[in-house]
Known about the structure:
The complex is a heterotrimer.
Chain A: E1 4-13, E2 16-26, E3 31-35, H1 42-50, E4 57-62, E5 65-66, H2 72-77, E6 80-82, H3 95-103, H4 110-123, H5 139-152, E7 157-161, H6 169-184, E8 188-192, H7 196-202, E9 205-210, E10 213-218, H8 220-225, H9 227-245
Parallel strand pairs in A: 3-8, 3-9, 6-7, 7-8
Antiparallel strand pairs in A: 1-2, 1-4, 4-5, 9-10
Helix pairs in contact in A: 3-4, 3-5, 4-5
Chain B: H1 3-22, H2 25-50, H3 59-76, H4 80-104, H5 109-129, E1 139-140, H6 155-177, H7 180-190, H8 192-197, H9 202-228, E2 230-231, H10 233-236, H11 239-252, H12 259-278, H13 284-299, H14 303-315
Helix pairs in contact in B: 1-6, 2-6, 2-9, 2-11, 2-12, 3-4, 3-5, 3-9, 4-9, 7-9, 11-12, 11-14, 12-13
Chain C: H1 4-35, H2 42-58, H3 64-91, H4 95-117, E1 132-135, E2 138-141, H5 142-164, H6 166-176, H7 178-183, H8 188-210, H9 220-235, H10 240-261, H11 263-280
Antiparallel strand pairs in C: 1-2
Helix pairs in contact in C: 1-5, 1-8, 1-9, 1-10, 2-3, 2-4, 2-8, 2-9, 3-4, 3-8, 5-6, 5-8, 6-8, 9-10, 9-11, 10-11
The structure holds adenosine-5'-diphosphate and magnesium ion.
Amino acid sequence: MTLLHVEGITKQFGGLRAVDNASLSVPPGTITGLIGPNGAGKTTLFGVISGFIPPTAGRIVYNGADITAHPPHRRARSGIARTFQIVQPFAGLSVVENIAVGAYLRHAKRADATRVASDIAHRVGLGAMLHQPASALTVAGRKRLELARALATAPRLLLLDEVLAGLNPSEIRDIIPIIQAIRAEGVTILMIEHVMQAVMNLCEHVYVLSQGRMIAEGTPQAICTDEQVIEAYLGHGAAGQMQAHA
Amino acid sequence: MKISSVIAMAAVLLALVGVALFGPNTAINFLVTALIVALAAQGWNLLGGYCGQFSFGHAAFFGTGAYVTAILQSRYGVNAWIGCGCGILAGAAIGTLIGWLSFRAGLRGSYFALITLAFAEVLRIAANAAPITGGGTGLLLKLDMRAANFQFASRGTFCLIVLACVLAVLALTTWIARTKRGAEFAAVRENEDAARALGIDVLVTKLRAMALSGAITAAAGCLYTQYFLYLDSNIAYGSWISVESLLAVIVGGIATPAGPIIGALALHALGEATRLLAGRITGIDLVLFGLILVAATAFAPKGLAGLWNAAQSRRSPRA
Amino acid sequence: MYTPAIVAEAMVNGLLTGAVYALVALGLTLVYGVLHIINFAHGALLTCAMFAVWAASELLGINVYLAIPPLALIFLALGYALQRFVIGPASRGDDANTLLVTLGLSIAIENALLAAFKSDTRTLSGDAAFDVVELGPMLLSRPRLIGFAVALVVALLLWALLRRTDSGKAIRAVAREKMGASLMGIDVRHIYALTFGIGCACLAVAAGLLLPTFYVTPRVGQAFVLVAFTIVVLGGMGSVAGALLGGLLIGVVESLGGLLLGESLGQAGIFVIFILVLLLRPTGLFGARA
Ligand SMILES: Nc1ncnc2c1ncn2[C@@H]1O[C@H](COP(=O)(O)OP(=O)(O)O)[C@@H](O)[C@H]1O
Ligand SMILES: [Mg+2]
C-alpha cells in the first residue's frame, strides 16, 4: 500500500536532463526524505509531483490513480500540498489572510477559514504575527508561513522543500516537533532536506537523488553508510559526522 | 471602519442625493456622467484592483453594453429594461471570451494590457464600419419618456437610479472582498504559483473576474445609452472610457470598494474646474489627468482613499 | 483587377513604409529589451516629434532632412531626462507602475498637443509627396525611397553602436544581467535613461522621414504605436533584428491589405494580426524565448 508512486520520471530542460528516470514511493503515514546535492533535481521532481512541471516521461500515481495529466490546483484539491523552496508569500496580504487562502479550499465560509487559519498560525508559531503583512516577516517567518499555508489545505500528502534551510539551530529545533505532530495526525510527508540532523530525526525512509538519478534508498542509517552515496554526495568528512550522529 | 469615514461617506451620499433631487440640470448632468464613469471604474477595479489584471481596453465592455442595449431597442423593438439586461449579459460574455483567449495564451501584465487595448480598437473599427451600428453616423434612440422605456422626464430620477447602481456595486464589491472568491482574486493577484499550489484554478478565477468586471462596465454603457440616447463608435468603444475607468481607480484608491467612486467624482470635479479656469481649450483637462496619473503613481499609490486613511490614523494615533 | 505590376508596386511601397515602421519599433523594442518595460508613451512621443519636424519645416523654414540631426539630439536629451527624472523615480521599478506612468505621460503629451495645435490635420507644404521616381514599370515616391534608405542606415548605425561602442556594450550588459552590470560599476540608471533617449532619437528620425508623405494630428501616434507594438511582438520583444524584419513584413501586409480590403479594414487587419500573434506566438515569430 502506497500513497504516492513516482514511476520513471524524466524531465528534460533543453539539453539538461534535470531528472532522469527517477522512481520512488511513499507509504501512507510516514515521513520520507529526499536528499541529494544541490542541482540534483529534487525541486524539479517536486514540481513534477505537484503538477507545476510537466514531465518528459514517466507517471505519477497518487492514491491509486494516475494524476500525471492533472493541473496543480486539482492535485491540491485531491490532497497534495507543497511548499516552495524559494518562498512565495502573498506579499500584499496579512499572515492570517495568507493562510486563509489555503483554508478556503476546505471551508467555504470566511469565519471558518479565518478560524482555521489562525489556529494553524498558532501551531507553527506565527500566532503573534497574524495581522502583519507577509512582506514584513523574516526568512524563518516566511518558511513557517509556507508550511502554514500548505497545512491549511488539510492535505493527505505534504511536500516540504527545504523548509529548514536558512534557519538557525534553535529555529530548527522549534520546527522539528511541529513536523512530527503533523505526521502524528496522519498526514503523509515527503521532504527535501539538507539539514541531516532533521533527516535522521524525522525520516523513516530516505531516497538519494544525484544528477537526476535515484542512486540509493533505505533507512537514514543505511544511507549514511552507503558507499555510493558517500562517493556521490557526502564526502568522507560528512559521512563520519553523520555516523557520529546516528 | 472608522466613525469619521462613515460620517464622511454619509455626508457625500446625502450631498449626491441632494443634487439629484434639487440640483440644476447642469449639476445633474455632471453627476450622471461622473457616476456612469464611477460604475465603469468599479468594473475595472474588480479585475485590475482585486484580481490584479490591468486592462487598457474596458471600452470593449462599455461599448458592448451600450450597443447591445441601443441596437435591441432601435432595430428589434425590444423593451429598454430587457435590452439593458441583455447588454449586461453581453458584457459578461465578451469579458469571458477575451479573458479566455488571453489568459489561456498565458498573457499577463503588459501583454494583457496591450491585447485588451487591441480588442477594444478592433471593436471600435468594426462598429464604425458595420451597418447595424449606424456606422459613422451613429445610433439615435427614439425619445419616449416613460419609465417602462427606461427613460424619465426628470433627470433627477435617472440620476438616482445610476446612484443606486453604483451603491449596489459598492455593496457587492465589499461583500465579494470578504468571501472565498475575494480571497481567490487576491491570491491570484499576489502570486499565481502560490495560488495554484493552494488549489485555486487561476484561469477560472480570472475568468470570473473578467465576467463580473465586463458585466459591471457594460452596465455603465447601458446607462449611458439610456441617458444620452445617442451612440457612435468613438463614444462606445473609444479609448476615453478605458482611460477614465482606470484613472478613477488609481486616483481614488486601487482595490478599495469606494476608490472608483471617489476617483470618478474627484476627476470630474477637477475636469470641470479646469474647463472653468482654462476656458474651452480641448484637451486641457486630459493633460491634467495624465499628469495626475503620473503623480498618483509616484506619490499616492493607494490613491485618495489611502491618503484619507493615512490622515485619519495620524489624527488618532493607535496605541 | 490586380495586375502583377500593381501588386508588386504595393509590395515595394509596403517595404518602403515598413522600414520607417521598423525605426519606430526599434525604439520600442530597445527600451523593452534593456529596461524590460513597455513604453506606452512611445506613440505620443512620436507625435511630439512629428510636430517638432512640422514646426521646424513650416515655421522656421528648415529643410526636413536637415532638421533631423538636431531634432534627434534634442529627443535624445528629452528621452534621457524623461526616464531619469520622471518615469524611473515615479515607477520605482514596478511593472504596473511603469505601465501607469507611461500611460499618464502619453495622455498628457497627446492632449497638450491637442490643446496647442487643435485636431487639424497638418502636412508639409510643397509637393514633395508627389515627387516620384520611375523604377522599371513602377512609380515610387522619392521621399519614401529616402526614408527607406535612411531608416536602414540608422538601424545599421544603431546596431554598430550597440556592438562596437563602450556605451553600447554597457547597454547590452545591462540588458542581459542588470545586477551583474551594476556590480561591475555600470551606472544602471544612466544606461536606462540613455537607452530611453536613443529610443526617442529613433522617433525623431522616423518623424522626419514620415512627414514628407504623411500628415500629423495630435492622435497620429496612436495608429503608429499599435503598428509598432505589433512589430515588436512579431519580431520578439527586445530583438533589434526582429523589429527590422517585423517592420518590413507589417509594411507589406498593411499595403497589400489596404489594396485588397480598403483602408479602414486594412487598419483593423493590423490589430487582428497583433491579437493573433499575441495569442498564438507571444514570443514572436523570430524571437527566442525571453
Ligand atoms: N525551469 C528550468 N529551466 C532550465 N533548467 C532548470 C529549470 N529548473 C531547474 N533547472 C536546472 O535543473 C537542475 C536541477 O535543479 P533543481 O531541481 O532545482 O535541483 P535541487 O532542488 O536538487 O537543488 C539544475 O541544474 C537547474 O539549473
Ligand atoms: Mg531545490
